[in-house]
Design goal:
By secondary structure, the protein is an alpha/beta fold. The protein is 41% helix and 18% strand. Strands 1, 2, 3, 4, 5, 6, 7, 8, 9 and 10 form a ten-stranded mixed beta sheet that branches.
Length: 310
């Protein structure tokens, strides 16, 4: 059984689509938890009409939490089932999704983290993004672990993530201090606990990238929460091989961040040096690209970025 959590903050044009995609699932053993985060566009009034003791729980928070993370954590605490499924208020599930994910959990009983492929909708076009699915679409559904997450392409977003409640509570849920990126940080912290995941080779959700009031449009993304999480973990844990894997992953995120900061004329060298791990064991294209970005004159680095050389 699943507890489905939807945080709501000023998503009135989209919220009915998301809710209906849950309520009309072919598998009906679920509860839907709606947490309004102080909406002012009519979303609050709409969800207040949906309270249903058997199927739908509606909660209200007066102060919006950045990124919806506090609302999701609140929903986790109110949930009654063992599997927690997340859906953003402007996204949509295929109607067979919960049945498919239930079947996946039974096929891979050691998994405590479930995910699947998804479409993205942008500028009136639906596309399959160049993430994990395109690289593995000819493979059957399978287990994944931390190493897969660190080295392969993106395999999970919030709208397709399903995690056991006990695991979420053990890592204390989403980090509410961040305005953006705490979802990626949560997936990492879950997998750092040694949790195994299962990936479904099936597209069964749609992520809408042109919705109103999107966090990705409204919040500046300076650094990823993952980077300090990795630093903290490495000070306390980690064997030699895991240490190298995590350092390379942090370097990749740092490289991406430094490029973004450089393009937007923000101080970038200090951030880059703070989170980059300098070690001969981490030597790869990203390592060399980072060195070029921070040591070349700014104009030269921007030129190479524009030419897609860096």
């Amino acid at each position: 059984m699943f507890s489905v959590i939807i945080p709501v903050f000023n998503k009135r044009p989209h919220i009915e689509r998301a809710i209906n995609s849950v309520l009309n699932q072919t598998y009906q053993e679920f509860e839907l938890i709606l947490v309004d985060d102080g909406s002012t566009d009519g979303s609050r009034e709409f969800v207040s009409t949906l309270q249903d003791e058997d199927k739908i729980k509606v909660f209200f928070r007066d102060k919006p939490g950045p990124g919806g993370y506090a609302a999701r954590n609140f929903g986790i605490k109110q949930s009654k089932y063992g599997w927690i499924a997340f859906l953003d208020a402007d996204d949509e599930w295929d109607l067979e999704r919960l049945q498919q994910m239930k079947d996946l959990s039974e096929q891979f009983p050691e998994a405590s983290f479930l995910t699947s492929a998804w479409n993205e909708y942008f500028s009136q076009k639906e596309i399959v993004p160049d993430y994990y699915y395109l690289a593995h679409k000819d493979e059957p559904s399978h287990y994944f672990d931390l190493k897969t997450f660190l080295y392969d392409k993106q395999m999970v977003c919030t709208t397709v993530a399903i995690i056991r409640k006990e695991v979420l509570l053990a890592v204390q849920g989403f980090d509410e201090t961040w305005k953006r990126g705490a979802d990626l940080d949560l997936w990492l912290r879950v997998l750092l606990q040694g949790v195994r995941g299962a990936w479904l080779n099936q597209i069964n959700a749609t992520y809408f990238r042109d919705s109103v009031n999107m966090v990705t449009e409204n919040v500046e993304y300076v650094i990823s929460p993952v980077m300090p999480t990795i630093q903290k973990f490495l000070k306390e844990n980690g064997d030699f091989h895991q240490k190298t894997d995590l350092e390379k992953y942090s370097n990749k995120l740092t490289y991406i961040t430094v490029k973004r900061l450089l393009i937007t004329k923000k101080p970038f060298r200090k951030t880059g040096f703070h989170y980059f791990f300098f070690s001969p064991l981490n030597l790869n294209k990203i390592y060399l690209g980072f060195l070029a970005l921070v040591f070349f004159p700014t104009g030269v680095s921007k030129f190479f970025i524009g030419k897609r050389i860096l």
